[in-house]
Amino acid sequence: MKAQGSIFSPIIAGCMNWGEWGVDLSVDQVCRLIEDCLDIGVSTFDHADIYGHYTTESLFGNAIQKKTSLRGKMKLITKCGIKLVTPNRPSNKIISYDTSKEYIISSVEKSLQNLKTEYIDLLLIHRPSPLMNPQEIAEAFTELKDSGKVLSFGVSNFTITQFEVLNSFIDLITNQVEVSPLCLNPFVDGVLGQCILKKIKPMAYSVMAGGKLFSNDLDDREVRVKKVLTGLSEKYKARPDQILISWIIKHPSGIIPIVGSTKIDRIRLAVDALKITITDEEWFMIWEASEGKPVP
């Protein structure tokens, strides 16, 4: 299963803030937001079992159940492997990771039930565990694929070595990592280069740097980046957040940005930003502003 990133929409709707970790949308509001996303070509929705302390998948699933025709129009991503301390999981004593075969399969069964769906398009291991056994993960993935419960697999926050080890046991189609002008590591640590080598598309979260660049309390680094974004916004008659999307997608690995907004206007702006092509020099202007010095 190589080079399947194209099955996902070029902008992914991140659902972490749809529930109680964010604006706490109602089922009707979620249903409307799903429909609005689909109308503008955003057909991929990114979840994790832990979002909303294990409640956001159910919120989304209730919306799908209300209008069952929506499921066939979308791709669903979810993640597993993190165990949170929450009343919804009273047996969890501390925050920990679990990538055992039993846990992965049980997590998927819960996600299927919560999302009110018969299959998940893409399952990710949320974070690499120091105790993960790649052979055991591969066994879980193979069983889930053979049963038709998960169509494809990937990882999130994996280093190139961690990815390579697991990929030697089971084909992975993405590595979902944090990328923004305030998080440059994937550009230099080999993660994006590995995606090019494997002919897979990386997915990027926190592309807006967690909103830090748009707050009123900026440090020196954020001030420098915002100044460049503002100047480019004027040139391209676009918003700074659209320039950020253009900056992300310029990389040759074909990064797919995850947009975590619950406002359809913001998501539409991200889609429109796909048409903006900044120059190489302008890309390095943002890089230089982040680093505080020219490239060597």
Proportion of residues in β-strands: 5-15%
**Biggest sheet details:** 8 strands, parallel, barrel
Globally, the shape reads globular
Q: Order of strands in the sheet with the most strands? A: 1-2-3-6-7-8-9-10
What is the gyration radius calculated from CA atoms? 19 Å
CATH architecture assignment name? Alpha-Beta Barrel
First-residue to last-residue Cα separation: 38 Å
The amount of helix comes to 40-55%
CATH top-level class: Alpha Beta
Uncertain segments are 1-5
The tally of domains stands at 1
CATH topology: TIM Barrel
Mean pLDDT across every amino acid position = 96
Q: Give the ordered list of helices and strands.
A: EHEHHEEEHEHEHEHHEHHEHH
**Multimeric state:** single chain
Notes on the protein architecture:
The protein is α/β, with parallel strands linked by helices. The chain has a single domain (5-214, 242-276), classed as NADP-dependent oxidoreductase domain (TIM Barrel). Helices cover 42% and strands 14% of the residues. The chain has twelve helices and ten strands. It has helices at 27-39, 51-54, 56-66, 101-115, 134-146, 160-167, 185-188, 191-198, 220-236, 240-249, 264-272, 280-291; strands spanning 12-14, 44-46, 75-80, 82-83, 96-97, 120-125, 150-156, 175-178, 203-205, 256-259. It is globular.
SSE blueprint:
Elements: E1 12-14, H1 27-39, E2 44-46, H2 51-54, H3 56-66, E3 75-80, E4 82-83, E5 96-97, H4 101-115, E6 120-125, H5 134-146, E7 150-156, H6 160-167, E8 175-178, H7 185-188, H8 191-198, E9 203-205, H9 220-236, H10 240-249, E10 256-259, H11 264-272, H12 280-291
Parallel strand pairs: 1-2, 1-10, 2-3, 3-6, 6-7, 7-8, 8-9, 9-10
Antiparallel strand pairs: 4-5
Helix pairs in contact: 1-3, 3-4, 4-5, 9-10, 9-12
